[in-house]
Amino acid sequence: MLDQYRSATHQTETLLTYNKHLKTLLASQEQEKVSLEQQLTEIETTQREVVPLILRMMDSLEKFVSLDLPFLSEERSQRIAKLKAMIIRADITNAEKYRRILEAYQIENDYGNTIEAYRADLTLDGVTSSVDFLRLGRVALYYQRFDGSETGYWDKEQKQWLALSNDYRNSIRKGL
User: Fold this and answer.
1) By CB neighbour count within 10 A (0-12 exposed, 13-18 middle, 19+ buried), where does 140 fall?
2) 3 state DSSP class of 129
3) What is the rounded distance in angstroms from the CA atom of residue 65 to the CA atom of residue 79?
4) pLDDT tens-digit series, residues 94-130
5) How far apart are CA 146 and CA 135, in angstroms?
6) How many CB atoms lie within 10 A of CB 126?
7) Separation CA 47–CA 26 (nearest Å)
């Protein structure tokens, strides 16, 4: 009888401990349920707020590019045009739209930390010719004709191309 009593007492203690654990688990699940219900009610608000955010980000990106140094103009314009076309498509989720806009922001951010030389057309005084460009982050943008006969830079203040004296020709050529 003593063994039965000890066994019954041990089972009772085990069951009480297990029951206490289940009550704690149930309370935790109840809190999780309340949290999920709250998130479900807030998801509509979040969806409504994401679209204006995406549109504002797109407008800001477009304005930034238009006010920035005029480098890789065609590439950057195409990127913005593709983003604008993507934003109005119903088959692309808002999350994907947001991701692609962030990707474009990252590309623009990277331009500020790199040095690049490339060839492109430049129109000066109504005459278009191919030149070499040297971009130093977002600090400076230079051009030089292939034969080195003319070297210039983009003046941010005047928003136009200005010629440099021949003293800079070799430095720009080395940079290129």
Assistant:
1) middle
2) strand
3) 11
4) 999 999 999 999 999 999 999 999 999 998 888 888 9
5) 16
6) 5
7) 31
Nearest C-alpha neighbor of 92 from the set 78, 105, 82, 106: 82
pLDDT tens, residue by residue, 23-79 = 999 999 999 999 998 888 888 888 888 999 999 999 999 999 999 999 998 999 999
What is d(CA 72, CA 78) in angstroms, rounded to the nearest whole number?
10
Backbone angles phi, psi at 143, to 5 degrees: -135, 155
CB–CB of 130/146 below 8 Å? Answer: yes
Furthest-apart CA pair in the chain: how many Å?
Answer: 112
Distance of alpha carbon 105 from alpha carbon 57, whole angstroms: 9
